[in-house]
Design goal:
The chain has 338 residues and is α/β, with parallel strands linked by helices. It folds into 2 domains: 204 residues, Bordetella uptake gene, domain 1 (D-Maltodextrin-Binding Protein, domain 2, 3-Layer(aba) Sandwich), CATH 3.40.190.150; 116 residues, D-Maltodextrin-Binding Protein, domain 2. It has 12 helices and 13 strands. The strands form 3 sheets. It has a 6-stranded mixed sheet, sandwiched between helices. A 5-stranded mixed sheet has the order 7-6-8-5-9, with helices on both faces. A two-stranded antiparallel ribbon has the order 10-11. 51% of the residues are buried.
Length: 338
């Protein structure tokens, strides 16, 4: 497998060709007559907030309507997500984030919703990075794991919470290696990264998109990307994959996007399907955002999107269950073991 920047996924051109061959979804009659609200259920500056704000210009151009972004963090993203789910305003309120977070709410008990209750409009795939404060002595992932093993429960790790991408990443890493750590949680990935860059904590496992600026500025040292391929980050260089140290480490693609409640009118969904097929797949702004933030451009929608997000949902849900971080059997809420 090549580097993450060249991961084998359908390109925008291939996606457009597929739509042309199959005829694509029918163009809907929906023409928004008032602003659309996207609730970002995490803090400003984090990976979800960045992704949404990078997507908004293309949405506004395609729909001919204003899009308002509202940050409503709390309870691992479930508060803002609930607001979108309960908005009941003819499809004018959406939410966003990592699909695996959305898909595991019934396992964590934070929100009674399943991934199939939503229409998924994916934009990028993000990867978690094990990053340390630049003043720490850890030069490699093996150095950090050895320190965690020696100083049990003393190494501080900053994340946006157990149910965040960073929380799931350190949980999975600990499960794979048997190390223990002191978890320090924040209301969003950006505050967690800032905490590590400032020395308030020693480590963060938040996403590359959130750590990129601090890595490029030399304030965070990246030790490994939680993937089976290296990551080329603009302005820094290559970050080695976790599989260099842990060959059997389980990896699943972490897709991010915009989520529209399944209760939205059919014409809203048809229109957004067409927007993704015609506009988002070609959007240079999103492609530039992905390239600059260590992400992969992944404009998928519909049944294809639902199928693609399932492995990461399975990995996270069963990881939580196996680590005794939840008592809900994922199988009981429709998530089979991978």
């Amino acid at each position: 497998m090549g580097k993450i920047s060249a991961v084998t996924m359908l390109s925008a051109a291939a996606l457009a060709a597929t739509v042309a061959v199959t005829g694509g979804p029918a163009l809907g009659d929906w023409a928004p007559d008032r602003p659309i609200t996207i609730i970002v259920p995490w803090g400003a500056g984090g990976s979800t907030d960045q992704m949404v704000r990078a997507t908004v210009p293309a949405l506004e151009d395609a729909l001919g309507a204003s899009v308002v972004v509202v940050n409503q963090p709390g309870a691992s993203g479930s508060i803002g997500t609930r607001s979108a789910l309960e908005a009941d305003d003819e499809g004018y309120t959406w939410t966003a984030g990592a699909a695996k977070d959305l898909g595991t709410y019934p396992v964590t008990g934070l929100l009674e919703t399943r991934i199939t209750d939503w229409n998924l409009y994916l934009t990028v795939a993000n990867v978690a990075v094990v990053g340390v404060n630049a003043d720490t002595p850890y030069e490699t992932l093996d150095d950090l794991l050895a320190a965690m093993e020696e100083a049990t429960g003393e190494v501080t790790v900053a994340t946006a919470g157990v149910n965040s991408s960073g929380g799931a990443a350190i949980g999975a890493l600990a499960a794979a290696t048997g190390v223990e750590y002191r978890h320090v949680t924040y209301d969003g990935g950006n505050p967690a990264v800032i905490a590590t860059a400032s020395g308030e904590t020693q480590v963060t496992t938040q996403l590359a998109a959130e750590q990129a600026e601090m890595i490029q500025a030399g304030r965070i040292r990246p030790l490994a990307v939680l993937s089976d391929a290296p990551l080329d980050l603009q302005g820094y260089g290559e970050i080695p994959p976790v599989t260099d140290s842990l060959p059997d480490y389980p990896v699943a693609v972490n897709y991010f996007g915009i989520f529209v409640p399944g209760t939205a009118p059919a014409e809203v969904v048809a229109q957004l399907d067409q927007v993704w097929a015609d506009a988002i797949t070609q959007d240079q702004g999103l492609q530039d955002y992905a390239a600059g933030r260590g992400a992969v451009f992944t404009p998928y929608w519909g049944e294809d999107a639902q199928a693609r997000v399932l492995p990461a949902i399975q990995e996270m849900a069963w990881g939580l269950f196996d680590r005794n971080e939840t008592e809900v059997d994922p199988e009981s809420v429709g998530i089979p073991r991978r």
